[in-house]
Amino acid sequence: VLRKIEQLKTMRVSAEQFNGKIAKMVKQELSDPSVDEASHFILRLSYCQTDDLRRWFLQQETTLFQHRLSHLSTEQLAKSVKEYAQIKPIPRAEKERLQSHLMQLMNPVEFAKSHFYAVPFQQALDLVAQRQCYLSQGNAYIPQAKVLSILVAKFRSELSRCLVLMANTNTFRNVEDPEAVRIYPLLQNLNSCLVNEEPSGEQGLTGSTGLTAANVDRMAPHMPLCMRQLQAGLQQDKKLRHWGRLQYGLFLKFAGLSMDDALAFFQRHFTSVTGEQFQKQYAYNIRHMYGKEGKRATYTAYNCSKIIMGNAPSTGDHHGCPYKHFDNQHLEQTLQRLKIGTDGDRRAIMALKKSHQYQLACQKHFEVSHEKANSMEVSVDNVGNHPNAWFRASVNYAERLAERRRYNQHASISL
């Protein structure tokens, strides 16, 4: 649910559509209160580990909390304010005394029906900034319709404090209980597991868009920025270092590139080594990646969380996530060189990068590069969460565009 909320934030949908989609997800996935509560606290344990994880979890949980509050009845909201925020409506006499000021916040009919709450102005800074409350002697007087903002701010503050506290106390690490020891590794890696796996090569691209050694270069414009950088680095350096080969090789495997084509593709680009050297130094690792050597394990392509949280690139490396690992100037130059979106689009992407919302920045890149995706019913599930989902959706988009052009040409000829 939280991944879907993150994805919805960058889609061009109305507030009504946004809330409708969240309501549908909550009904389908979180209808059982006990499961809802348990999953929240499990995710707290998993997402308290780093600043980036805490920031991401806090943003999505706050959005979900705000959505739920907005669907409470007037009576339910008043009860929540009393119990959770521990504030009560101001007395009628005080309301009448401040009537001339409070009436500026709403029309007379609404004023007569509404309760007002007085809170320290620090708890209502967003309402103060928007001039949606009355300030007097350090207090902000807030109409009931706007009190949702106070609850959201308190929830965010409390959740942030709890996550930092859990991180600082090394929750689970210092516990000797066998059950805690058993589940700690799962919690530690849960954030990289909560993304649907992409289809295997056998289920990937087929037909005219099937990936082969001959067309990988041509298909590069359909890849997300992380993989385009690996492709560009491969062409520039005539090689890739270990982590780059692993990240790019598994991506290509799950995009549909066969093992034989992978061997041919990398050997053709590794021109700095002889054929014999390639077979000795690199061919085994490629076959191992496809489960044909060693313990014959099945390796899956890296999702965005694993790339972002994995080994950071050093000089000469091309792996990693550009939105996290590039500095601002480098990323701006890269976006401009690749002609990604308009100046405004690139500013929006950079704003997301600067606020550490790396996956949303990647998703925004897809959106501005595939403007008609929603109207053409292109599935964007997992775009921004998995490079292979990005690639698959981009190829699908290009196919739909080509079909539309052929249809329009046929229609014009018929006329």
UniProtKB/TrEMBL annotation:
One cellular component (GO) term of this entry: alpha DNA polymerase:primase complex
Required co-factors: [4Fe-4S] cluster
Cross-referenced InterPro entries: DNA_primase_C, DNA_primase_lsu_euk, DNA_primase_lsu_euk/arc
Membrane-spanning ranges: none
GO MF, one annotated term: metal ion binding
Keyword Nucleotide-binding: no
One BP annotation, GO: DNA replication, synthesis of primer
Residue ranges of every copy of the DNA primase large subunit C-terminal domain listed in the record: 222-391
CDD domains assigned: PriL_PriS_Eukaryotic
Stored PANTHER family: DNA PRIMASE LARGE SUBUNIT
Name of the protein in its database record: DNA primase large subunit C-terminal domain-containing protein
